[in-house]
Design goal:
By secondary structure, the chain is mainly alpha-helical. It is built from five helices and no strands. Helix 1 runs antiparallel to helix 2. The longest helix has 15 residues.
Length: 100
């Protein structure tokens, strides 16, 4: 019996509307891991079209891929440019500690 064929799961394919993208980014920022945040922003950029996001952010596509990769370490200015190019704003609110 042959094994069923599988395909690699691509998160960007599931980020197909504003609500899903917003919920995804909110959850990632809530987690707070900088590398995960950068990679998540990269997934949203892929879903929206990396070339267009790079143009809108004033960056090269290659540097954007590198900065937002799993091992990337983007400068905060880069993150701000990309977040704005994606149509979002970063805001600050008081931290609410989780009850034990």
């Amino acid at each position: 019996m042959a094994l069923p064929k599988s395909t690699r799961w691509d998160l960007a394919e599931h980020l197909d509307n504003e609500e899903r993208i917003t919920l995804f980014l909110e959850a990632v920022f809530e987690d707070g891991d900088p590398q995960v945040i950068a990679a998540a922003i990269g997934e949203v950029a892929k879903a929206r079209g990396m070339s267009q996001v790079a143009r809108d952010a004033g960056l090269s596509r290659e540097s954007l891929y590198k900065a937002l990769s799993e091992n990337g370490n983007p400068e905060f200015g880069t993150v701000l440019k990309v977040v704005r190019a994606l149509g979002f704003d970063l805001t600050v609110s008081p931290h609410k500690p989780v009850a034990a």
